[in-house]
Amino acid sequence: QCVAVCPTGALTERDYTWKVIEALVDPQKTVVVQTAPAVRAALGEAFGMEPGTLVTGKMVSALKKLGFDYVFDTDFAADLTIMEEGTEFLDRLTRYLDGDKSVKLPILTSCCPAWVKFFEHQFPEMIDIPSTAKSPQQMFGAIAKSYFAKKLNKKREDLVVVSVMPCLAKKYECTREEFAINGDADVNVSITTRELARLIRNANIDFASLDDEDFDQPLGESTGAGVIFGTTGGVIEAAVRTAYELHTGKHLEKVEFEELRGMEGLRKATVDFDGMKLNIGIAHGLGNARKLLEDVRAGKSEFHAIEIMACPGGCIGGGGQPYHHGNVDILKKRQKAIYREDAGKAIRKSHENPFIQELYSEFLGRPLSDLSHELLHTHYFNRKKLSEIE
Ligand code: SF4
């Protein structure tokens, strides 16, 4: 099946709103929706609001009015991604510094499916370098259909998981075979921010006049670290907040890492882990990513960790968002909105999310446990080799 994977929206996406409606009217199904961090910073634009207007509460309210049984937050799964990816990074870093020659650095973030597809085709000899952590969308699906289904006393097939994403590549990601069990995908339908706006309009919901509502629990609670996944530099900043405390055992006083923020396509920063200097690279846009990867391939990379996102600005500039027509000011306003939401959160480090702690104590055990590996980690394919065989 051919589906759109264009990260910038240059190709027309498939409209899956009919699949959502089909699920919502099926009385046999429990329909669960998750919303990605960047959606709340741009959805308002589809209803004439200023770029950078945060509409988190109205978005939740609209989704409840549309009839979803549970309205959850992908930010929860972003916190979970940090638990797994941050632990994996520290494990690799420690072994590397101890002289283990089998360990490779830098570790590369793996939450952007357009970027994952890119390296599978373009840098297949490096598929053992990215983190094995699934993206937040896919972690959410795996947890919803195991842990949460069990809490509801239902089978995984009784649940339909819908995602609202800023992204066209996420439609492709949830069709990858490794993200399904016996043909039942962990995430059944992915729609974009624009498709959600269409659903709201078609249901005659007056979005602007909606009251704010809260996400449902337990998969709706998130920290500021989960929120900043929506912008370039945010994934690595979230990882640093947790990795710092896990590594040093010390309380991190200031959680904002200004040196990791910005809008330049290629950025680098050194973060001090209590005497240990970590070199971090950040790229958004695949042309910029290629530059960093050529250095890694040539053995010239100075970095311990690299964050890569395919879209300009990261997910705030995703191909499924209201069109920004390359206007960087709009992206900057969305970015500010994301940082505002982070600053307003009571908890801003992923490992302090009480529902994440509960998930580990009740179900997963610990990060990188056997069950965590089974549900939350993945593997990559050498797509160059596959196309040669075909
Ligand atoms: Fe999708 Fe975000 Fe990657 Fe763009 S940067 S392709 S929106 S995951």
Automatic annotation (TrEMBL):
<protein>
    <submittedName>
        <fullName>NAD(P)-dependent iron-only hydrogenase catalytic subunit</fullName>
    </submittedName>
</protein>
<keyword id="KW-0411">Iron-sulfur</keyword>
<dbReference type="GO" id="GO:0051537">
    <property type="term" value="F:2 iron, 2 sulfur cluster binding"/>
</dbReference>
<keyword id="KW-0479">Metal-binding</keyword>
<dbReference type="GO" id="GO:0005506">
    <property type="term" value="F:iron ion binding"/>
</dbReference>
<keyword id="KW-0001">2Fe-2S</keyword>
<keyword id="KW-0004">4Fe-4S</keyword>
<dbReference type="GO" id="GO:0008901">
    <property type="term" value="F:ferredoxin hydrogenase activity"/>
</dbReference>
<keyword id="KW-0677">Repeat</keyword>
<keyword id="KW-0408">Iron</keyword>
<dbReference type="GO" id="GO:0051539">
    <property type="term" value="F:4 iron, 4 sulfur cluster binding"/>
</dbReference>
<keyword id="KW-0560">Oxidoreductase</keyword>
